[in-house]
Amino acid sequence: MTPAAPAVHRERPRSDQVRFPPRYLLHPLRPVARGLVRRRYDVRVLGSDQVPASGPVIFAANHLGVADGPFLAMFAPRPVHALTKLEMFRGALGRFLLASGQVPLDRFNPDPYAVKVCLRVLRDGGAVGIFPEGARGGGDLGRFHRGAAYFALVTGAPVVPVTFLGTRAPGAHMGQLPPRGTAMAVCFGAPWHVGAVPWPRTREQVEHASLLLREHMLVHLDHARRSTGLELPGPLPATDVEPDPATGVTEQGAP
């Protein structure tokens, strides 16, 4: 991966004053982690050939449960620097996430640093991961935030839809892993493209692009269900309420 020319990083929002995330644990651990997971679960990976082999790319995934983030890091055909909620970056887990190149995100307050780090990755030809639903849930894209479309509008990077199926059992809580032997699928779809829009970008432009991206991801979700024979787990139990900011273009977040 060749770093971008300095002039690209000076475009607004600027990314020349942040560093590319560390990734010294991201490369060596991926093959080992995949092997360990496949000893416990029947994981199928479909559509990897649709992911651009080089250049910037945004992975936009649905969000069922706690396994989705690690699975994206393990099974994506390229190393991914995923936006991860700030609450995860505590203690040993937080140090591990930082060492493996994940990007902490404050979901409830403006977080220009996280935005600039992701732009740094994309402008240098890397891969960023994002869960447009925000909080974990049914995985049906009923709630959809603007981040993925925003990064696409800023950089012109293609957005690859990712559908997770089987990573949470029906009726299970958001933090529960499925039983041993569960069939799971990680499905990559055809990239979605939108032309880069120069500064300043309007809220209306980002919202319109977000709705178009959501439609593309819904088509891919339907295709993934039909091609794998797997279904979404349904809503979380009523006792599982994960706070989520009211910044969605569809449902405005959970209480």
Can you characterise this structure?
This protein is α/β, with parallel strands linked by helices. It has one domain: Glycerol-3-phosphate (1)-acyltransferase. It is 33% helix and 14% strand. It has a seven-stranded mixed sheet with strand order 1-7-6-2-5-3-4, with helices on both faces. Helix 2 crosses helix 3 and helix 6 packs across helix 7. It is globular. The mean pLDDT is 94.
List the helices and strands and how they pair.
Layout (H helix, E strand, L loop, with lengths): L5 H4 L16 H15 L1 E5 L10 E5 L6 H8 L4 E6 L5 H9 L3 E3 L6 H12 L3 E4 L16 H9 L3 E7 L17 E6 L14 H26 L27
Structure summary, number of beta strands: 7
Broad structural category:
alpha/beta
What is the rounded Rg? 17 Å
How does the overall form come out from the CA principal axes?
globular
- Strand arrangement, largest sheet? 1-7-6-2-5-3-4
The low-pLDDT segments are: none
CATH topology: Glycerol-3-phosphate (1)-acyltransferase
Portion of residues in helices? 25-40%
